[in-house]
């Protein structure tokens, strides 16, 4: 059985994104993660760990696709967010 893919929004607290022993990013309130993984239909390659207490909002892949189909402005926002992430990664 294939694991469910979710996209997450940090609503409280902080999370550390690591590749092995290397911390790549610190996610704080308002950060969205696993954007690329959910759209590419594959698991996230990084370890994401809570730094203290935190709270997340999650949206399953099917719900995200439904939301994007019904609300084009949502799809535009997701695309814009991915473009920003790609730009940061390349610089």
Distance between the termini: 38 Å
Structural class computed from helices and strand pairing? alpha+beta
Biggest β-sheet, characterized?
4 strands, antiparallel
CA radius of gyration is 14 Å
Would you list the SSEs in sequence order as H and E?
EEEHEHH
Describe the structure.
- The protein is an alpha+beta fold and 91 residues long.
- Helix content is 38%, strand content 40%.
- The protein has three helices and four strands; from the N terminus they run βββαβαα.
- The protein has helices at residues 35-40, 61-70, 72-90; strands spanning 6-19, 22-27, 32-33, 47-60.
- Strands 1, 2, 3 and 4 form a four-stranded antiparallel β-sheet that branches.
- The longest helix is centred in the last third of the chain and has 19 residues, at 72-90.
- It is globular.
- The termini are far apart.
Considering the chains and any ligands shown, give keywords for the structure:
4 strands, alpha+beta
Kindly summarize this structure in a few lines.
By secondary structure, the chain is an alpha+beta fold.
Task: Describe the SSE topology.
Elements (H helix, E strand, L loop, with lengths): L5 E14 L2 E6 L4 E2 L1 H6 L6 E14 H10 L1 H19 L1
Antiparallel strand pairs: 1-2, 1-3, 1-4
